[in-house]
Amino acid sequence: MADVLIVRAADDEYAAALRWYADKSIIAAVGFEAAIASAINSVATQPNWHPSCDDRHRFMIVRGYPF
What we know:
This protein is mostly helical.
């Protein structure tokens, strides 16, 4: 399994999005948390499935959560 490093800006954006979803619906916030956990797991276990940002980093768009 690959190491996954979440940069500070992404962590801050995640926290803001989670608060936004929680303000709208606890169910949406729980779903968002699960989608992010699944995305991180996917990147960690199959990093080559995901597009590169540069020669060291990969990313994944989390569908269904447009914040």
